[in-house]
Amino acid sequence: MPTLVVLGTQWGDEGKGKVVDYLAKKADYIVRYQGGNNAGHTLIYENKPFVLHLIPSGILFPKKNCLIGNGVVIDPKALKEEVTFLNKKKIAVKGRFFISEQAHVILPYHKLIDEILERGNVKIGTTKRGIGPCYSDKVKRIGVRVVDYLEKDVFLNLLDKNLTEKALILKDSGVDIEDLKKEILKDHNELSKFIKPFVTDTSLMIENAIKKNKKLLFESAQGTLLDLDFGTYPYVTSSNPIAGGVCPGVGLGPTEVDNVLGVVKAYTTRVGEGPFTVELFDEMGDFLREKGGEYGATTGRPRRCGWFDAVVVRHSVRVSGIKHLILTKLDCMEGIDIIKVCVAYRYKSKVYKDFPASRTVQKYAKPVYEEMAGFKCKVKGVTDFKKLPLNAQKYVKRLEQLVGAPIDLISLGRKREETIEVTKNTKWF
Ligand code: IMO
Ligand code: MG
After folding, report:
1. Backbone φ/ψ region at 248: left (φ over 0), alpha (ψ -120 to 50), beta
2. Mean pLDDT of the region 332-344
3. Contact 192, 150 (CB under 8 A)
């Protein structure tokens, strides 16, 4: 089983960074397949937390190959900053970090348009990194791919076309198009030289790696409820974080995907606008935010917090064919008297066990809660499932039942060793 997809099962921020870092030691290749620098994956390196937005989390292991697939949108400036940051930490990336020539490029006008749209009447609460506008151009067939960015004539032509197409919205917001063009061209000279050594056909690299029976880990950003098709549309990101996204995102056939692993937080959080049935506005919400350090790794925004939503995670397990789950941040629930778990939604007189597509139901449904006794004693530091407080064990078992997939690993902190292998020696790959 050489290929494994790891994805978030809620609204992102499930702790994918730590999980990928934990599994990366067993992989040969770590590949991102969608999203861009809207992601924020927090890792611990030399005892200090550190956030990666674009480069796969496996980069901290010296010999691993890290790839960015064609489904990712790349801001060359952000990429340069991240590579420079890693180099300063003496983490070399040359020769083992590659980006797809077919990935689309985020340009300054994408970021400007993201900001302008956020000031309009459909506020999504985006990260303002230009993600949505860049994917829109890809779908409109006027986008700039990495390979286009490197061919100067092609790039100049596309730049003119794009600036003409976007002139109205930019001028309306007081942007000087000529100045913007000068800035883009100045950056282009420097950034195209910078990214060139990393650019390749990553899809071919992946095919060759599979032929050699190498182990490949596909790392998703965001989460199922931010998926363009299966999330809380339109309050979503503009790509497909679900497992199926890996196929168009790296150029891999579905028959080559061997295993799918979901990362799930012991409670729920969301950043940005949009429906959030289990949201807590009381001191319990504040408790989870403070205990879990729930502040955005990319934008610093406080995250909205709520109880575990089994309707959401069951939906995730289904649409991605998740075979295993990793539960994170169980330690952040220490000390709660009564824990609630959302098992269904109620809207008017109807009960919803499956995640509803209707915007009205998503917005106005009330959670149907089940209550469980909490756990008072410390779970942090425990490395054996049987040594967890009984109520913590019961909580984990109940979640498994409700969402329909086994929890094989539990994370109780950011460090690699703060992990319980519930199922010993699970063969992930
Ligand atoms: P990681 O990988 C949490 C959210 C934004 C916003 C919506 C659309 O760290 O889990 P976008 O900038 O993508 O157009 O914003 O998606 N969002 C995330 N929320 N974690 C993330 O990534 C996110 N990436 C985007 O807050 O609601
Ligand atoms: Mg995040």
Report:
1. alpha
2. 97
3. yes
Query: Global pTM?
Result: 0.97
Q: Is the CB of 362 under 6 A from ligand 1?
A: no
Atom of ligand 1 nearest to the CA of 36: 13
Q: Say yes or no: CB of residue 130 within 6 Å of ligand 1.
A: no
Percentage of the chain exceeding pLDDT 70? 100
Q: How far is it, in rounded angstroms, from Cα 347 to Cα 287?
A: 28
Tell me which of 6, 222, 240, 270 to substitute to probe ligand 1's pocket, judged by most ligand atoms within 8 Å of the beta carbon. 222
The pair of three-digit structure tokens given for residue 367, joined into one six-digit string: 């959670």
Q: Give 163 Cα–ligand 2 centroid separation in angstroms.
A: 31
**What does the pLDDT average to over 384-399?**
97
How sure is the predictor about 1, in pLDDT bands with cuts at 50, 70 and 90? low
